[in-house]
Amino acid sequence: IRCPVKECDEEILHGKYGQHLSSHKEMKDRELYCHVNKGGRPRQHLLSLTRRAQKHRLRELKHQVKAFAEKEEGGDIKAVCMTLFLLALRAKNEHRQADELEAIMQGRGSGLHPAVCLAIRVNTFLSCSQYHKMYRTVKAVTGRQIFQPLHALRTAEKALLPGYHPFEWKPPLKNVSINTEVGIIDGLSGLPLSIDDYPVDTIAKRFRYDAALVCALKDMEEEILEGMKAKNLDDYLNGPFTVVVKESCDGMGDVSEKHGSGPAVPEKAVRFSFTVMNIAIALGNESKRIFEEVKPNSELCCKPLCLMLADE
Question: What is its EC number (predicted)?
């Protein structure tokens, strides 16, 4: 051990340090001393150590940073360490790396949002396996996870399906289940069939109407809030809202031709859907419109209710 007393700096064996220290009567804090590294293994670089060894070597510094963070930054150790790292990078002119780190700190990150990746996969007609191949290639080549893995896309996709958002009708609607967890139901369920009807065999995926409507409104949440802000109606978050819906049924033509080679499919595909035309808030006798669909005839604003292959 090296004695810390001014103008002493003597090196003493650990066992004899107490005896040496008693000779310094002016010494107040007798626990202070400096270890001397006498040969042995050369000190490894900090970044080449195991995580446990890194923790051990930085223990004192960690305590100091923790004390500073609690005193100055409300205990936010992460912010202190990140800022130190940023300053160190910028001091060495590593501005690109510092900018990337700053983006991650602010939650922007260098990666794409799962919903954006889902949109890319759908719009470029990539199958799951093709997307996964692209994801792995980009990750291997760049060393960064720019695209999100498939399971993140599936989670993002669930939020777009009816039955994902819990809701409650006030007052409760007659003959409507209060259960918000909705599976896929038969396409023709609820349609009264008579003997005279033209027999149609269907394969259909149909969602419960109220669940599909809630999902559509949840999807439009940002537009609704922006509309309320524009009309200074922030205080009316609880409504009541009037929602005008246009229902539509769209024949999708002869799908067997479009599929080309593959399994034989029934001839007609039919889609039942609806479009939210406008949303208003009732204020006394007048109603203020907070949302209006600009292109009500566009396929892009159609919310699916039932997708059905009908074999006539």
Answer: 2.3.2.27, 3.1.-.-
Mean pLDDT of 208-237: 86
pLDDT of residue 132: 93
Structure tokens at 130: 């093709």
Q: Is 248 helix (H, G, I), strand (E, B) or coil?
A: strand
CB atoms near residue 17 (< 10 Å): 16
pTM: 0.52
Between CA 243 and CA 151 the distance in angstroms is 34
Burial of 279 (0-12, 13-18, 19+ CB in 10 A): buried
State the helix-helix crossing angle for 114-123 and 128-142, rounded to 10 degrees.
120
What pLDDT, in 10s, does the model give residues 149-162?
999 999 888 887 78
Tens-digit pLDDT profile for residues 98-139: 887 887 777 666 678 898 999 999 888 888 899 999 999 998
**Strands 268-283, 241-254: parallel, antiparallel or unpaired by DSSP?**
antiparallel
Q: Which residues pair with 205 in a beta bridge?
A: 307
Question: Domain map of the chain by residue range?
Answer: 49-106, 114-159, 184-309
Structure tokens at 119: 């949109």
Helix (H, G, I), strand (E, B) or coil at 66: helix
Paired residues of 145 in beta bridges: none
CA distance 214 to 165: 7
Q: CA–CA separation, 22 vs 98, rounded Å? A: 51
Q: What is the DSSP letter of 175?
A: T
- Output the CA angle 47-49-51, nearest 5 degrees: 95
Residue holding tokens 């446990």?
52
- Pick the closest to residue 167 from 220, 207, 219, 213 (CA basis): 213
